[in-house]
Amino acid sequence: MPPVSLSPPAVRGAPFRVMPGFGLSLGFTVFYLSLIVLIPLSAVFFKTFTMTWEAFWHAVTSERVVASYKLSFGASLIAAGINVIFGGIVAWVLVRYKFPGKRFVDALVDLPFALPTAVAGITLTALYSQNGWIGRYLEPLGLKIAFTPLGVVVALTFIGLPFVVRTVQPVLEEAERELEEAAASLGASSWQIFARVVFPTIMPALLTGFALAFARATGEYGSVIFIAGNMPMVSEITPLFIITKLEQYDYAGATAIAVVMLLASFAMLLMINLLQAWTRSRSGGGRNK
């Protein structure tokens, strides 16, 4: 009696799949994405289309709204840029060095994920206000953080740091140390090794972390409203302006501003993803040569 094979029958030219076929999987994927993403976003656009062009233009280009755009997107870009630099350094230290309390520091990176945003905003305000633990020493130097646009940047930097660290960290862990050792044996300096070996490897991850931190910052609300002070034309962010419109039952005006933020965020993320794809193609082409 021939032995019984427990392996699935192999079909020539057809790879074995554990999950159901492409048709069922694709149908479930489209249904789930439509239910979670496409339908809510389309509802925003449909509500905005109920406005006339003049009303839409007035709602999204008023002086107060434009000032909130500048603060939201400008502070988000600055915070994401800061996180790329210092988040990359934190990821490097956590991967390449051993020191007492390393696990505690590694867990501390995820604190903004676990901490409620309102609690984070109240804590930052208490620290950087005029009578706060840190603000009391900065105030005599003429540096005011709480209730200013600088406070918005601080809050957005706080909530965006884990995105960069957790994106760059696994790339550094999987990086080939042999390439660095080979470059060092050929006489390359530490700066040359970082610029020509390490940085091209982590560059796509840095761009991904930047995109994630920027996207998170543009829609942040809870941790910002406390430390910002919410002064019109000074420290009022766009998400707060949308909430104000909703409280006034101006749903069309709120969705109009949301559409502008959505399109602007999508355009910036698209540019970042194109730059990331270009960087990967360049690095891949360089390795193949």
Please name the defining characteristics of this protein.
289 residues, globular, mainly alpha, single chain
Q: Please, how many helices?
A: 13
Query: What is Rg?
Result: 24 Å
Binned strand content: under 5%
How many DSSP E strands?
0
3D shape:
globular
Give the helix level as a range of percent: over 70%
**Content-based structural category:** mainly alpha
Written account of the structure:
- With 289 residues, this protein is mostly helical.
- It has 13 helices and no strands.
- Helix 3 (63-96) runs parallel beside helix 8 and helix 8 (149-174) packs antiparallel against helix 11.
Overview in brief:
With 289 residues, the protein is mostly helical.
Secondary structure elements and pairings:
Blueprint: H1 22-48, H2 53-61, H3 63-96, H4 102-108, H5 111-114, H6 117-128, H7 135-138, H8 149-174, H9 177-185, H10 190-218, H11 222-228, H12 238-247, H13 251-288
Helix pairs in contact: 1-13, 2-13, 3-8, 3-10, 6-8, 6-11, 8-10, 8-11, 9-10, 10-13, 12-13
